[in-house]
Design a protein that fits this description.
The protein is mostly helical. It has a domain at 30-158. 78% of the residues lie in helices and 0% in strands. It is built from nine helices and no strands. It has helices at 2-26, 31-61, 66-92, 97-119, 130-148, 151-158, 170-173, 175-195, 206-213. It is flat and about 75 Å long.
């Protein structure tokens, strides 16, 4: 009789815990979401690397007003941040609108650059033709759009952001141990400073080396 009463009271609690733990335990990151988010993050890293390596040459060869250069730098920084942020938001499950918006903007930018390349002569640093370069550049935004539009990606976004389990602060739960560790580190540093002082005016002293060279 007692066992049946305990089972009656325990069953709802077990069911409630299972309902809370099931979404976080069984929900796995789809491969399409991981690939699309990784492309966005890697694209931001690549843009940052290209900007750091080729920015000096661009600024030295581009003679124009400072406001135009500053505007270009702001646009480039915003592009890098949006690529990384959209990829992280997609992986977190917050949404895919930002990633798709960035992808559409990149496609429009590639189209504009292709039109400009056909009208204005420029020095091609690669062995590929202009249409081939356009296709290579379009592969990144098109790939992000295809991966973000996959059924598994849509289901991941529809489920919402992932629920994160709050974990207790180890310092708060082990306050005495943290205090003792901090005191031990401080005492060790004081002992080293007292028992092994730095010799003043020694051979390896920078000041003495300067005076001896003079």
């Amino acid at each position: 009789m007692a066992i049946s009463v305990l089972d009656t009271f325990a069953a709802p609690q077990v069911a409630a815990r299972a309902a809370v733990a099931t979404p976080t335990a069984t929900r796995r990151l789809p491969l399409a979401i991981l690939a699309a988010g990784s492309i966005g993050i890697l694209e931001s890293v690549g843009l940052l690397a290209v900007a750091l390596t080729g920015l000096d040459a661009v600024l030295s060869s581009f003679r124009s007003g400072g406001w135009l250069v500053a505007g270009g730098l702001v646009v480039l920084a915003a592009w890098i941040v949006l690529c990384a942020g959209s990829g992280a938001a997609l992986i977190d499950g917050a949404g895919r609108k930002l990633l798709m918006g960035v992808a559409y903007a990149e496609m429009a930018l590639v189209a504009v650059l292709l039109v400009v390349a056909t009208l204005v002569p420029f020095e091609n640093p690669t062995s590929l033709s202009v249409p081939a370069l356009g296709l290579v550049a379009l592969a990144v935004p098109v790939g992000k759009l295809l991966l973000a539009g996959a059924p598994s990606a849509q289901a991941w976004i529809a489920a919402g952001p992932r629920i994160r389990v709050r974990r207790p602060d180890p310092v708060q739960s082990h306050r005495l141990l943290a205090t003792m560790t901090l005191g031990l580190i401080g005492a060790s540093l004081c002992a080293v400073a007292i028992l092994a002082p730095v010799p003043a005016g020694g051979v390896n002293d920078p000041a003495s080396a300067v005076f001896t060279q003079d």
